[in-house]
Specification:
The N terminus is likely disordered. The chain is α+β, with helices and mostly antiparallel strands and 390 residues long. The protein folds into two domains: 203 residues, Porin, CATH 2.40.160; 112 residues, OmpA-like domain (60s Ribosomal Protein L30, Chain: A), CATH 3.30.1330. An eight-stranded antiparallel barrel has the order 1-3-4-7-8-9-10-11. It has a four-stranded mixed β-sheet with strand order 12-15-13-14. Strands 5-6 form a two-stranded antiparallel ribbon. The chain is 36% helix and 35% strand. It is elongated.
Length: 390
Amino acid sequence: MNISRLACVALACILTTSTFSQEPELELTKKDSIVNSYWLVSLGTNIVDDSGHEFSRLFDMEDAWNMVPYPSRISVGRYFKNGLGLEAIGSYNQYKEGKTIDKVVNPEDKDYFGIDFRVSYDLNMILGETGFFDPYIGIGAGYTDANNQGRGTYNAVAGFRTWFSDHWGLDFNTTGKWAMSTDNATNHIQHALGVAYRFDVEKGLSRKGQEKLALLEEMEKEQQRVQDSIAKAEEARLLAERLQREKEAAELAAAEKAKKEAEEARRATLQNKINQLGNVYFRLNSSYLTSKDKELLDELVAIMESEPKLTIKIAAHTDSRGTHQYNQWLSERRAERTVEYVISKGISQDRIRHEAFGETQLVNDCADGVRCTEEQHSKNRRSEFKIINL
């Protein structure tokens, strides 16, 4: 059961309880939802205190704190439902000239590199959900090259994250680093501040939210028991109505299908009848109708007179000889003359339309530059008839 459904359930239960009793209202809110597990990436800066007396002068920023003026720390981690988290951290810094390093004034700038791995624990698992405040502690190990000395370190960290949304927040922490070998390598402290982004977030209910959920589920069951008898009768009524609607829809669909099939069959039969008349074929460079052409058009007129709702489109074409512009003009003239003749026989102008294609729709391969016989060219000089509406 997800959070949105639980909210709907809560609303239904509230309406029921407010009607029949004076029990306090319950609802699941955003505060009852917590992040259980996620991946996290952070980018920020780090401050290193390697003065040699860190805990006695913890905030000696002027003499002991070292940092660079650009992002110098990156981390990637995976955090689990049980509160544990695994994180890998890389950091860079620079010991500044004049700062106290290992209880000695540093004579020159020196690079600091660190790579650390740690296991942390979310204290909210003990304290309970505290909203946007997310404290944690952790332990780990790493390797640090500081003051021109490489060393393995044991680490302990304490920090907190503050979240502005499910994905974005800030990470503040302080890590104590103890050298595994004490040969000329002092312990030091590393503070960090970064922007944190978490993804692949899995959310769940807090402890308080789970208690609400249990109560809401009980209320839902009780409400369901009361409504079951009403629901069954309503389901039967709705089923009968649905079956009736489905029957009527099926009958209507069958009638529509039969009507459409009949219209398509009639249209195909009529188009076939028109196709059997053949096309009007024109002489070379001519748009005039021969007596044979007029006889064909008279038969077309007869068909249109027998079908008062029939609308025809005349498509006129030319062969490829001549320029494109000329052939377009010539096909328009052929279409117009064909239409004029049909109209002259008493067919209404709004029942016959025309379109001219010039040499763009040849019925064979007799394009520009292709040698063809006159008979082959003549097949392209035509007017065709297509049904638009019936």
